[in-house]
Amino acid sequence: MHAKIVATLLPGMLILATVAAAQTLPTPEERAAIAAASATERTREMKLLGIAELQPPATAYDIGKPGNANYDETSANPYPNLPPLLVLKDGTPVRTAAQWQKRRAEIKAVFDENIYGKYPAVIPAVTWRLTGTERITVQGVPALVKHVTGHVDNAAYPAISVDIQLDVVTPQAQQGRKIPVIIGGGSIRPRPVFMPPPGQAVHKLKAPDNPPDSAKLLLEKGWGFVWINNNEVQADNAAGLTKGIIGLVNKGQPRKMDDWGVLRAWAWSDSRALDYLQQETPALTVVRRANRAPSAAFATTVNFVRVLNVTSTSPNTPGSRERSGHFSVVSIRLRNHSTSCSCVGRSG
After folding, report:
1. CA separation (Å) from 335 to 267, 284, 297?
2. What pTM, to 2 d.p., does this model score?
3. Domains in the chain and their CATH numbers?
């Protein structure tokens, strides 16, 4: 059923499938400095929250040991009684568009308070500019590449500068036409090679032999893809919380405990990219993310009523904050409409 819904809606869509963008890996010295600063920030926040010790993280490789990921289907859902989606907090069933808007605000408030943190009352505006174009061949397909930069207004705190970098790649054969593009669907930039320290155990998943290249498949289909570097907007560590967009809004000061975090900052940059891309695309869009990024996809969906969200999530995603199977989620949001439906199912 879900696949049919997606197939019906795909023509002419913009699809947002952002994953953490490739970037230059830090040196060992830089990694040590990031780890130390992150530990300092973690200690500060634990003291503010009155937390003496953190629970050990779950792993996926120590089968049979405490803390390993759970593969027992009978215990994969410790929270079976979630609040009904279409019932207001006062018990009133949602039967009208106006009631749904009220219920949506209730749900958003729960996410703000307990999961993602709250957006600042004022976030600086983003000004987009085209920084260059080039015609290249991507996996044998002639492509047009637009390099775009979104500069965040930092007049209020010039010490921190934040830019959103995009590569918009489309088939040359489709130039001048409206086509679907997938943010995160491919990249023309080299991926860094991670070399673990000597003696460190590394667990890898077996990829298919000669897997198809997503950029090639999209361009051959007549679609495009967009690369975005969310990590430049907000670093994925506690050391960066006084920098990036969070640091800019807070003018370099530590955040409060109910302020937004990295995932919500990524959702914000995704949405700003969406603003730029929708200047020439239809109003219905899709968000699909992989690995730890589903949580940011949820943050985008919760706040912006213009998203079709098709996600196979990781245990980081709200709703599966325990060692359980993954959730599959399809939620439809029509821009400028109050129609909304969500289908949630858990896989083992």
Report:
1. 17, 6, 16
2. 0.75
3. 2-50+83-188+212-346 (3.40.50)
